[in-house]
Amino acid sequence: MKRGTIIDQYLITNFEIMNIPNTFELFGTTYNVVFDEHRCNKESAYGICDYEENTIYLTESYNTKVLPVESVENTFWHEVVHLIFKRVGLDDINDEKNVSVAGSALYQIVKTFKY
């Protein structure tokens, strides 16, 4: 996974506990997850879902501040919801309120799995 450039030791330490995949499959398509601080900060976002590249871009820092692990993980699920909405043809793909609620719900489910 491509790493960000800020405080590399901290990021590597945090990466060890992040529950974010390098790739995943949805509806028969493989998607990549890439950490790209520059791209996300340029778009003023913690995460970006690029539908044409089949890639979710995330950052571990925003405006030089390191984000908490929970924020990065929650952002991943938020971007996954954007992707799901797009792939199933829902009109509210850019409805950030619904995407955030669904993303947070998925994150809570995954975070509280018991095996």
Describe it.
It contains 4 helices and 6 strands; from the N terminus they run αββαββββαα. The chain is an alpha+beta fold. It has one domain: Orthogonal Bundle (Arc Repressor Mutant, subunit A). The strands form 2 sheets. It has a 4-stranded mixed sheet with strand order 1-2-4-3. A two-stranded antiparallel sheet has the order 5-6. Strand 1 and strand 2 form a beta hairpin. The longest helix has 19 residues. The protein is globular, with a radius of gyration of 14 Å. 24% of the residues are buried.
Net shape: globular
- Strand content is 15-25%
In DSSP terms (H or I, runs of 4 or more residues), the helix count works out at: 4
Number of strands: 6
Domains counted in the coordinates: how many?
1
The main sheet comes to: 4 strands, mixed
The CATH architecture category equals Orthogonal Bundle
CATH topology name: Arc Repressor Mutant, subunit A
CATH top level assignment: Mainly Alpha
Content-based structural category = alpha+beta
Enumerate the spans where pLDDT stays under 50 for 5 or more consecutive residues: 1-16
What's the rounded overall pLDDT mean?
Answer: 87
Strand arrangement, major sheet? 1-2-4-3
Give me the Rg, rounded: 14 Å
Q: Please give the alpha-carbon distance between the first and last residues.
A: 27 Å
Write a brief structural summary:
The chain is α+β, with helices and mostly antiparallel strands and 115 residues long. It has helices at residues 8-17, 37-42, 69-87, 96-111; strands at residues 23-26, 29-35, 47-50, 55-58, 61-62, 65-66.
